[in-house]
Design brief:
Layout: H1 5-18, H2 22-31, E1 40-44, H3 51-63, E2 71-75, H4 82-90, E3 97-102, H5 103-112, E4 124-140, H6 148-157, E5 163-166, H7 172-184, E6 189-192, H8 196-204, E7 210-214, H9 215-223, E8 227-232, E9 258-266, H10 271-285, H11 288-296, E10 300-304, H12 306-327
Parallel strand pairs: 1-2, 1-3, 5-6, 5-7
Antiparallel strand pairs: 3-9, 4-7, 4-8, 4-9, 4-10
């Protein structure tokens, strides 16, 4: 199918904003009859309904307005985020299969798995990082301990008696909590679950004490006064919970984690298709409608282009992979 003329024009303007040269624009025009000739596919390596899925569908909905054949979202789950991510790494590099990438599958996995089946830097090219989400540390509501300092003091006085949940070994929830224990010098007992929902059930039932989860998800339970928010993992307080301090403000130095989400293509994707995809993703990320949806869910809008996204990826790999090795975290 051919790209609509107005969409091609819009993408040309986006390319100009990116500083792409006239050769690329000419290549797009010459390639318009053949690419994209069918739907683009965004692979989400997590189940439907979670943070990965939300970001993918917001971006795909907007991108579809510029692609005649549409953009579909496919959830490929298994082994945490390994199955879906590996699928895209090995898919034909023709510009039709994209990956929803995050700190989880593009950074943390590199520290968790000795023989990772894909290389986040060599196998993928970032098209753009769209949004970042802080983690919120929540506690059961019936506890008399009301601040992070209260919990840490209690844990130091009662080693092995405070528990924290995660959505599974090696997940972002596990890594940030283990890093907190390491930096604060306390012993907390890890209780892994198969997914966040089961963790929330036991947390609200008083069977586990603490849980780090993406702030956008934890917000629902905090606002409903089912759980107590203790701290957020980002560099700044969140507008949706301005009363909740950061980890730094709570006395935890040098610990900060924000889970970014964005779209990646195979690093072997031809230049013409890569330029088209970069412009398409950039246009979607900069849409006021998309930004509003992310902000409503408690996200920090990034809308970073390929170069800035690549720098962020390499920076996080250099920071978190060695720490994961020190922590000795093992995947399931």
């Amino acid at each position: 199918m051919m790209i609509r003329r107005e969409n091609l024009k819009r993408l040309g303007l986006a390319a100009a904003a990116l500083g792409l040269n006239s050769q690329v624009l000419t290549a797009w025009s010459q390639n318009a009859d053949t690419y994209p000739a069918r739907s683009l596919k965004v692979v989400v390596p997590q189940p439907a309904g979670g943070g990965f899925d939300f970001v993918a569908r917001v971006l795909a909905d907007k991108m579809a307005q510029g692609v005649s054949a549409g953009v579909i979202v496919e959830n490929r789950t298994g082994s945490g985020t390994l199955v879906g991510t590996d699928y895209v790494a090995k898919a034909p590099a023709d510009g039709y299969t994209l990956l929803l990438g995050s700190v989880s599958n593009m950074v943390l996995n590199a520290g968790l798995y000795k023989n990772l089946s894909y290389d986040p830097v060599k196998d993928f090219e970032p098209l753009g990082l769209a949004v970042g989400y802080s983690y919120t540390l929540v506690s059961r509501l019936d506890a008399k301990l009301k601040t992070l300092k209260d919990w840490l003091d209690y844990a130091r006085a009662h080693p092995g008696q405070v528990t924290y949940a995660s959505a599974g070994n090696g997940t972002g929830q596990h890594v940030i909590a283990a890093a907190l224990c390491h930096v604060a010098g306390v012993e907390l007992i890890h209780v892994p679950y198969r997914g966040a929902q089961a963790a929330y059930t036991d947390l609200m039932g008083g069977r586990v004490d603490l849980f780090f989860d993406l702030s956008s998800t934890a917000r629902v339970h905090v606002d409903a006064q089912r759980l107590q928010a203790l701290a957020v993992s980002g560099a700044q307080r969140l507008p949706m919970h301005p009363q909740v301090p950061t980890l730094l403000e709570s006395g935890i130095e040098s610990l900060e984690l924000e889970s970014w989400f964005g779209l990646f293509a195979s690093a072997k994707t031809p230049a013409k298709e890569m330029a088209y995809l970069s412009a398409l993703v950039r246009e979607a990320m900069q849409s006021p409608e998309v930004k509003a949806r992310f902000e409503k869910q408690g996200g920090r809008v990034l809308a970073w282009g390929p170069q800035e996204s690549r720098q962020a990826l390499k920076k996080d790999l250099a920071r978190w992979v060695p720490l994961i090795h020190v922590l000795g975290i093992q995947p399931e």
